[in-house]
Design goal:
Blueprint lengths: L1 H16 L11 E13 L2 H4 L6 E10 L4 E24 L2 E23 L7 E19 L2 E21 L6 E12 L3 E3 L2 E3 L2 E14 L1
Antiparallel strand pairs: 1-2, 1-10, 2-3, 3-4, 4-5, 5-6, 6-7, 7-10, 8-9
């Protein structure tokens, strides 16, 4: 994490030293690929409480006006955690006292609208709202017992972010995003209830702008 923060700081310094770029109406599309970190919150923490560093995000945005873009956002995150000795009862006549290995694989798929506050500047802050669906696969391994459930839910996802030009032509640079996923997914794997899925995510990656 320290290395990532150091690289980001250097990038910000380089971006500040770069001359201003004026996008205006010229920019038409933005593609980005990002490393995503995800923090479970709410009842999602009851199943896996640890932050996920195993995530990837891809995003496409198409400008319909100078300030407004619409597009598609896809992500994948893998949460996992080892839980110490616990008694698990798969049925009324069986009890297993052993360590548990818990996994959650999450696939958010959403259409997204973004508003860019400074489309003619050298740095482009934005706010976005995504609506779509989320697939969550939850998995518990206890010795020879394997319990699995997959479910879908409606997804709502606000976010804020910033595009920071790095290249001399200003058509590529760094994307930094923070957002919140809320979905209606419900599950009861290993008698651990999740009423809905909630998480706070952070993206850092590269973007490419097309004119």
């Amino acid at each position: 994490m320290k290395r990532i923060l150091f690289i980001l700081a250097i990038t910000l310094c380089c971006a500040g030293a770069a001359r201003a770029q004026y996008y205006g109406n010229d920019i038409r599309q933005i593609y980005s690929i990002n490393w995503q970190q995800n923090i479970p919150v709410g009842s999602s923490r009851d199943f896996v409480s640890k932050m996920s560093f195993e995530g990837i995000n891809v995003n496409w945005a198409y400008f319909v006006t100078e300030n407004i873009a619409v597009g598609l956002d896809l992500s994948y995150n893998n949460f996992h955690e080892k839980v110490g000795q616990k008694i698990y009862r798969p049925d009324a006549n069986t009890a297993v006292n052993a360590a548990q290995y818990r996994y959650t694989q999450v696939f958010p798929i959403k259409v997204q609208g973004k508003y860019f506050f400074n489309p003619s500047g050298s740095v482009m802050p934005y706010a976005g709202l995504g609506i779509g669906a989320l697939s969550a696969g939850q998995h518990i391994v206890i010795q020879d017992i394997d319990v699995w459930d997959n479910n879908w839910g409606f997804l709502l996802s606000p976010e804020i972010g910033m595009l920071i030009p790095v290249g001399p032509a200003g058509n590529w640079g760094v994307n930094v995003t923070a957002g919140y996923n809320w979905s209606t997914n419900k599950s009861d794997v290993g008698k651990i209830k999740v009423d809905n899925r909630q998480s706070i995510y952070f993206n850092i990656g590269l973007y490419l702008a097309l004119y």
